[in-house]
Design goal:
The protein is mainly alpha-helical. About 70% of the residues lie in helices and about 0% in strands.
Length: about 210
């Protein structure tokens, strides 16, 4: 539904203005400049941010400084999408819209979207994964691939930075998601839930 795009549009416009209005030439962020240095020196090692900076710099016409702005805003936007999906999992379109608007105004998301390095990647990707998992566990078979994608993406967030781990606490909210009893309920619990858990096992084993 188009209404769910309102939060992400508001967030992106706000962040574009903030990045333009503030002097962030010092590229704030815990070891963010180190990630940029590794990318610029051609030796990103196992630094997720440096790997992403390096890859995009080689395949786009953007500079490392421009990529810092784009990537930080992008992953902040993913966090807003995750919040929107989480609200949608509980209360449908209205819940998704209100939850997304709250996330788009959350100062913490705007803070992380100003940082360089691994912080915005870990924060944004973890919340996006949470949103996918919650929506995928609504009890509808066609939404299960979203949960599988969510549990697969979460290790990427953790590899970027361990600060993504606390977001796992929000998965306890799964038990509060309203489920409509249908003839497919037994298929979801007997087949889809094990598939989702296997996706989680595979993703962590792969890392």
């Amino acid at each position: 539904p188009w209404s769910l795009l309102i939060p992400i549009l508001f967030f992106v416009l706000s962040q574009c203005y903030i990045h333009w209005a503030l002097d962030i030439s010092d590229m704030p962020g815990a070891a963010g400049t180190w990630s940029l240095y590794l990318a610029a020196s051609g030796n990103p090692r196992d630094d997720v941010a440096a790997l992403l900076y390096r890859y995009l710099e080689q395949h786009t016409s953007l500079t490392f400084i421009q990529l810092y702005h784009v990537i930080s805003i992008f992953f902040g936007g993913l966090a807003v999408v995750g919040g929107t999906l989480s609200g949608y999992a509980f209360e449908g379109r209205r819940g998704g819209l209100y939850s997304g608007l709250i996330f788009s105004c959350w100062p913490l998301i705007h803070l992380f979207s100003l940082l360089s390095g691994n912080d915005p990647i870990a924060f944004g990707l973890s919340w996006f994964a949470i949103g996918l998992i919650l929506v995928g566990c609504k009890g509808k078979i066609q939404l299960v691939p979203l949960a599988m994608l969510g549990v697969t993406l979460f290790p990427f967030a953790i590899q970027a930075k361990e600060m993504a781990l606390p977001a796992l606490c929000f998965l306890s909210l799964i038990i509060l998601i309203p489920h409509k009893r249908t003839s497919y309920s037994w298929i979801f619990f007997l087949i889809c839930i094990p598939v989702i858990l296997y996706s989680s096992y595979w993703s962590y084993s792969w890392f």
